């Protein structure tokens, strides 16, 4: 079964390796590097039809280096992922997904935290031109756009953050709520035309600030916004580094009970996690999850989780 995965951190991992290559360590070959959970061969093996690739910056990176680091990751996306793998096709606009050939895998560029933009909308527009189709306003901490899920203050969007959401709306770009504080979440839901959660689970089952409350989930579903389930055990089982596929499915069950059966997808967080759900070590293992879901849901529902729900939510 085809898969659309809304979040991975392969670009960050590839950038770290590239910078390490200055000290005579090897570059990571996207085609088959075993260090990459989402290398090309594993995407093929897992049936992944579209993979979203996040631009993510280490939170301790000095502010004056963030824009350059973001551009380096964009360059890796275009040269190492698209440029060296003919079957990887850049999804530069949402219509491109519907034009993928049978042997092609779509690659979508996203921004996980607007830190590289600073307070400059021109930089944001430049990222749109380079292919970014989803923007998360912040990672876990505060920046010039918003407070994140890990910021104790718990404030919402700034005036500039609201300008970013409006720019997303004008360009039919997703505004990602996965890392936001609760106040920022509600500010986004009030303003964004295309909200979604790239990788979040149910806080009712795992009380982690990165997960969504039932009130937030119901509000997303009323807006017909997607919540994409994340595979990181710490977001599945509270204070745990372990999880089973059954544990993961509990979060899908819970969101379905809130009315989300047509608004659920996958955002694995592969290459951004240190611990894994059992038997789900990389993108090549995706069909194990599909096989288990087919024991609990109809074929139509499983196809929805895997890819059809997202196709029904394209902002086109």
TrEMBL record:
Signal peptide: none annotated. PANTHER family: DIPEPTIDASE, MICROSOMAL DIPEPTIDASE. GO terms for molecular function: metallodipeptidase activity. CDD domains: rDP_like. It comes from Planococcus halotolerans. This is Membrane dipeptidase. One of its GO terms (biological process) is proteolysis. InterPro entries: Metal_Hydrolase (IPR032466), Pept_M19 (IPR008257).
């Amino acid at each position: 079964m085809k898969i659309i995965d809304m979040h991975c951190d392969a670009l960050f991992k590839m950038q770290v390796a590239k910078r390490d290559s200055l000290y005579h360590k090897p570059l990571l070959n996207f085609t088959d590097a075993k260090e990459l959970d989402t290398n090309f061969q594993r995407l093929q093996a897992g049936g992944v039809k579209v993979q979203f690739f996040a631009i993510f910056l280490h939170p301790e990176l000095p502010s004056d280096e963030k824009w350059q680091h973001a551009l380096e990751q964009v360059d890796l996306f275009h040269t190492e992922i698209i440029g060296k793998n003919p079957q990887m096709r850049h999804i530069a606009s949402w219509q491109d997904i519907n034009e993928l050939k049978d042997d092609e895998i779509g690659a979508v560029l996203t921004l996980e935290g607007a830190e590289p933009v600073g307070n400059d909308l021109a930089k944001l527009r430049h990222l749109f031109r380079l292919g970014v189709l989803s923007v998360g306003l912040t990672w876990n901490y505060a920046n010039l756009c918003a407070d994140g899920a890990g910021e104790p203050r718990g404030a919402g969007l700034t005036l500039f953050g609201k300008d970013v959401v409006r720019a997303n709306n004008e360009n039919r770009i997703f505004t990602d709520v996965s890392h936001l504080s609760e106040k920022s979440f509600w500010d986004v839901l009030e303003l964004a035309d295309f909200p979604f959660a790239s990788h979040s689970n149910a806080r009712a089952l795992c009380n982690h600030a990165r997960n969504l409350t039932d009130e937030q989930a119901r509000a997303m579903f009323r807006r017909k916004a997607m919540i994409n389930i994340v595979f990181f055990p710490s977001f599945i089982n509270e204070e745990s580094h372990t999880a089973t596929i059954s544990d993961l499915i509990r979060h899908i069950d819970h969101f379905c009970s809130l009315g989300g059966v047509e608004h659920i997808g996958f955002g694995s967080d592969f290459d951004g996690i240190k611990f894994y759900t059992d038997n789900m070590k990389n993108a090549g293992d995706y069909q194990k999850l599909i096989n288990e879901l087919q024991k609990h849901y109809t074929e139509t529902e499983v196809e929805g989780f895997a890819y059809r729900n997202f196709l029904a939510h394209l902002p086109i």
